Amino acid sequence: MSYASASKVYKKTQIETASPKQLVVLLYEGAIKYIRLAELALEKEDFTKVNTNLIKAQDIVTELMVSLNHQNGENAIASELQTLYSYVLNQLIQANLKKDQNKMAETRYLMSQLLEAWASI
């Protein structure tokens, strides 16, 4: 088995056996990774890779948005996260349209802060 296929199997198993909290952490890690890959691609002026990676990050943020639980008395937290995710998503779209490294760095920072908060729960 090659390293690439072993890595895919490991990642699939990790996702399938993760708790809901762990899934959120994995989503944050994925978004951060794709934003960073977009930043690196921008440095090389590989705009196709910038676009591809920012779209992957946007998809992850969208998944985080739709998975929010607005029930069970946690409406305030879900609403705040919804607002934050909407902002991050908009910034990622703008970063992609304008190839703006500052917007990429800002969204990566915000996602890193959220990752730290979730990881400490």
TrEMBL record:
SUPFAM superfamilies: Flagellar export chaperone FliS
Alphabetical list of Pfam families matching this protein: FliS
Span of the signal peptide: none
Top-rank lineage group of the source organism: Bacteria
InterPro entries: FliS, FliS_sf
Gene Ontology cellular component annotations, sorted alphabetically: cytosol
UniProt main location, coarse: cytoplasm
KW Repeat (keyword) present: no
GO biological process: bacterial-type flagellum assembly; bacterial-type flagellum-dependent cell motility
UniProt-annotated location(s): Cytoplasm, Cytosol
Keywords: Bacterial flagellum biogenesis, Cell projection, Chaperone, Cilium, Cytoplasm, Flagellum
Similarity field: Belongs to the FliS family.
The protein, known as: Flagellar protein FliS
